[in-house]
Design goal:
Structural class: alpha/beta
Strand order of the largest sheet: 1-2-3-4-5-6-7-8
Radius of gyration: 20 Å
Number of strands: 8
Bound molecules: SN-glycerol-3-phosphate
Strand content: 15-25%
Distance between the termini: 49 Å
Shape: globular
Number of helices: 11
Order of helices and strands: EHEHHEHEHEHEHHEHEHH
Oligomer: single chain
Largest sheet: 8 strands, parallel, barrel
Length: 217
């Protein structure tokens, strides 16, 4: 399973890239707005940091405007993938962008039927938001699993990005469910490092090493 970082913060991206575990980045209008920077400059900087897929979302509401916006964003870097919303206009734009050779990530997917439509329209990636489903008392992981099983059965080519991940257990669950990608916030990525026995083990090894070096020993 690939790991994408779900952020528009370049400090987070820069730090995570040094660990060698990040395959790509996803952004959305909320994450970009939080940075208070020009979107195109920000996207260009992210593309310099990350060679893998970088999702940038359109904010238009008609297909023609989405396609025009997508072409400008795609010109920023070869790895840019255009995020389009799961709406009729979004799927129209997805179809057109595929014809133009521009990859899409259909976002705000909350049901299997939406995922199927996005795959049929030629989305390179599909982003079901499991955390937001869980918030409503639905089972987000079950949706990821359903999409992955049926897509593989029918050989549908879109990659499934488990999005709206809220905690480290989600990562384990979507990996078990067969997601192609988990896109995770920086805080969740950092929590994936943590295990108290690792911390204790490092502490004990260092203490034992220092003790063995005491004079007279
Ligand atoms: O990738 C989608 C993600 O950014 C949404 O996460 O936490 O706003 O539901 P959240």
């Amino acid at each position: 399973m690939k790991l994408f970082l779900d952020t528009a913060n370049t400090d987070e991206i820069r730090e995570a890239m040094t660990w060698g575990v990040i395959d790509g980045v996803t952004t959305n209008p909320t994450l970009v707005a939080r940075e208070g920077r020009d979107f195109h400059h920000l996207l260009a900087e992210i593309c310099q940091l990350v060679p893998g897929p970088v999702s940038a979302e359109v904010i238009s509401t008609t297909a023609a405007e989405m396609v025009a916006e997508a072409q400008v964003l795609a010109a920023v870097g070869a790895q840019v993938v255009i995020k389009v919303p799961m709406t009729p206009a979004g799927l129209q734009a997805t179809t057109k962008l595929k014809e133009l050779g521009i990859k899409t990530n259909v976002t705000l997917v909350f049901s299997f039927n939406q995922a199927l439509l996005a795959a049929k329209a030629g989305a390179a990636f599909i982003s079901p938001f499991l955390g937001r489903l869980d918030d409503l008392g639905h089972d987000g992981v079950a949706l990821i699993s359903q999409i992955c099983v049926i897509f593989r059965g029918y050989n549908l080519q879109s990659q499934v990005i488990a999005a709206s991940i809220r905690h480290p257990l989600h990562v384990v669950q979507v990996a078990s469910a067969g997601a192609n990608v988990a896109t995770i916030p920086f805080t969740v990525l950092k929590s994936m490092f943590k295990h108290p026995l690792t911390d204790l083990g490092v502490e004990r090894f260092l203490a034992d090493w220092q003790a063995a070096k005491r004079p007279g020993k």
